[in-house]
Amino acid sequence: MMGSMLGLSLETWILLITCLCLFVMYGNSTFGVFERLGVPGVKPFMYFGTVGRHNKVYYIDDELSSKKFGRVWGMYEFRKPMLAVMDPDMLKTILVKECFTYFTNRRNLRLNGELYDAVSITENETWRRLRNILSPYFTSGRLKEAFAIMKHHSSKLKASLQPKAQNEEVVQIKDFFGGYSLDVMASFTLSVDLDTIDKPSNPLVSHSSKLFRVSVPLFLFQGCFPFALPLLELMGASLFPKDSLAFIFKFVEMIRADRTVNSQKNSGDMLQSLMDTQANVNGKESKSLTDHEIVSQVATFVFAGNETSASTLVFLAYSLARNPEVMKRLQEEIDATFPDKGPVQCEALMQMEYLDCVINESLRLYPPAARLERVAKETVKVNGITIPKDLVVMVPVYALHRDPEFWPEPEEFRPDRFSKENKPNIKPYSYLPFGAGPRNCIGMRFALLMVKLALVEVLQDYSFLVCDETEIPLEMDPQGLTGPLKPIKLRVVSRSKQ
């Protein structure tokens, strides 16, 4: 073998050496951006940049980087330069002040499959059009309409926990909160009662949970060789699981098509309202959605919203189980607001102060989206730092929420940080569980109402306890949204037995 290699012609050797040099040059060609901008950061490796340099869990890696470099640093996701920003003053400019001028768009990885026209992915005028059409479905009036739907499913959630609590069983808590969240989303959006709380084998449960499990090999390949993106798009490659996307889209499209054929009207659900825009446009295309856009928005809201809401409830239960004194105080507020386990009313629920504090603190420790991203449309200077055109600005929310200057003893679960007395001391733009500015989470108020109702209804009757199977501390999942690597297990007990 060695002899045959040495016997290669001069031309072949020149070709091999040239290819090797080009390979090395291409792998390093995007590096050096931050040295020129005077921004600190880790020295990148060829092709792999700075990925996982401090920790394989990307948001814990962000936290460790912030401790080393401060609130602004440069990083490379494979060959892609990204500016990490945790400075609240800069964040105000990027997310709010200059949103429409310079930072309108999130990063688009392009390999989005059927989600290419979802409101969370689209850009510029397309995003504005979709956002303007969708915003009316999340007004206070719509939330009050949705509350009755939430109540129906929260009652089923409470009933499903009863036999477990009577026997003081250890449960995988997401099995219950995940079913509740998905059922609420499907009922509000599609007028469909999936009943996944009692029927967890429904394939939509597994497909929705896999939606954010991106293909690691494809993510790595597109990061190292972005020139191949157009070809990958033509081939129909998708970072999201194609079988799950196809199943979900087929499910939603089947309901939409049936409505069209049978002229069925469900004025209370989101799908019908979006379909009605097609019939009532009066020649104004900007107010209308295509069939595919309708299916994309509904699928995104139901299944992406389900995962983030379920995750929030799971972390709430975990945090309360680990902090029983907080849970006891919250239950006292619940009992005072709704005496004798009375029915939960929307107005009273929204006025509960300590409940707000508990949920805010859980979202501080475990924000569903550990990062936010914006792309600079033009070169702009923010607080003395030049941000070149097309550079990705990454907001490390998980790390920001654990900055000890903003949050003393950040690892501690302390809901009083968000009390009426302490709230004025919170630095603006240091708390971003739903983002900020025009491109924040459109379903924020809906999600909070759903989470509050479920938590209050459950804690009226039950308590969560840690057990031998409860992992402390949690090992976090390096993929997707903020979440544990293994399912969280807790013991659920009836309050009457305590």
In short:
The chain is 49% helix and 8% strand. It is an alpha+beta fold and 498 residues long. It has a domain of 327 residues: Cytochrome P450 (Cytochrome p450), CATH 1.10.630.
Would you kindly provide a written description of the structure presented here, covering whatever features stand out?
- The chain contains 19 helices and nine strands.
- With 498 residues, the protein is of the alpha+beta class.
- It has a domain at 123-363 and 412-497: Cytochrome P450 (Cytochrome p450, Orthogonal Bundle).
- Strands 1-2-7-4 form a four-stranded mixed sheet. The chain has a three-stranded antiparallel sheet with strand order 3-9-8. The chain has a two-stranded antiparallel ribbon with strand order 5-6.
- Strand 5 and strand 6 (385-387) form a beta hairpin.
Strand and helix layout:
Blueprint lengths: L1 H5 L3 H19 L4 H5 L20 H12 L2 E6 L2 E6 L2 H10 L26 H11 L5 H27 L3 E3 L1 H17 L12 H7 L6 H9 L4 H6 L7 H21 L7 H10 L11 H32 L1 H14 L8 H5 L2 H13 L6 E4 L4 E3 L2 E3 L4 E4 L1 H4 L43 H18 E4 L23 E6 L4
Helix pairs in contact: 7-8, 7-19, 8-14, 9-12, 12-14, 13-14, 14-17, 14-19
